[in-house]
């Protein structure tokens, strides 16, 4: 068995008098193991990197393009990198056991938004369509934002309703993306009329 050397344990939490489902997870589930499991200062390093990302984002002056959703979503996705890295470092440094908040800000917020943003632009651009986000595309972006916020609220409140909202919003975002862009992918390329 490949995972023979890992230690597993059961985690059970009691919320509002109701026993939550017990979850099976690995003892090495902290984030810092990927870089240096016992390194001191890893939290401070992540906080510093988060601040550097925020400074870089501010220097790009993204507020100038907030009217154009296809570009604005790239800036918002990058903002989640700065915030997620900062929160992850803060959680590690303060031993707040909230590393999952930072992880979800990075994965759902940053990666989710960036994947959809780039896929949207590429789908439109490579098929010869105008680079403009329609109402459906804006809803896709809003659903991912709802997913990351709900998942973060779940970590702090423990209310399973937030977890369900996050899962539903995430699923709906990608499902709607496929519904909107699958016809674009399988349709002939649009060519601009010649002079």
The succession of helices and strands, N to C, reads: EEEEHHHHH
- Rg is 20 Å
Overall form: globular
The percentage of residues in β strands lies in 5-15%
Distance between the termini: 66 Å
Order of adjacent strands in the largest pleated sheet: 1-4
Would you write up a description of this structure?
- By secondary structure, this protein is mainly alpha-helical.
- It is built from 5 helices and 4 strands, in the order ββββααααα.
- It has helices at 42-59, 69-93, 99-125, 135-157, 160-186; strands at 8-11, 14-15, 18-19, 23-26.
- β2 (14-15) and β3 form a beta hairpin.
- α2 (69-93) packs antiparallel against α3 (99-125), α3 runs antiparallel to α4 and α3 (99-125) packs parallel to α5 (160-186).
- The longest helix is centred in the middle third of the chain and has 27 residues, at 99-125.
- Mean pLDDT is 80; it is low at 1-33.
Features:
two-stranded antiparallel ribbon, disordered N terminus, 5 helices, 195 residues, two-stranded antiparallel sheet, 6% strand, mainly alpha, globular
Short description:
With 195 residues, this protein is mainly alpha-helical. Helix content is 62%, strand content 6%.
Architecture blueprint of SSEs:
Blueprint: E1 8-11, E2 14-15, E3 18-19, E4 23-26, H1 42-59, H2 69-93, H3 99-125, H4 135-157, H5 160-186
Antiparallel strand pairs: 1-4, 2-3
Helix pairs in contact: 1-2, 2-3, 3-4, 3-5, 4-5
């Amino acid at each position: 068995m490949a995972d023979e050397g890992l230690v597993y344990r059961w985690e059970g939490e009691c919320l509002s008098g109701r026993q939550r489902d017990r979850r099976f997870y690995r003892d090495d589930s902290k984030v810092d193991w990927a870089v240096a499991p016992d390194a001191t200062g890893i939290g401070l390093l992540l906080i510093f990197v988060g601040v550097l990302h925020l400074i870089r984002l501010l220097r790009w002056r993204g507020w100038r393009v907030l009217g154009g959703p296809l570009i604005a979503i790239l800036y918002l996705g990058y903002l989640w990198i700065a915030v997620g890295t900062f929160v992850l470092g803060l959680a590690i440094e303060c031993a707040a056991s909230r590393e999952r908040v930072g992880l979800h800000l990075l994965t759902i917020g940053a990666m989710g938004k960036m994947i959809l943003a780039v896929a949207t632009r590429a789908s439109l651009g490579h098929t010869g369509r105008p680079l403009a986000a329609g109402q459906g595309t804006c809803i896709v972006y809003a659903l991912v934002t709802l997913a990351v916020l709900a998942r973060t609220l779940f970590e702090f409140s423990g209310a399973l309703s937030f977890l369900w909202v996050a899962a539903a919003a995430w699923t709906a975002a990608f499902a709607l993306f496929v519904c909107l862009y699958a016809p674009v992918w399988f349709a002939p390329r649009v060519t601009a009329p010649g002079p």
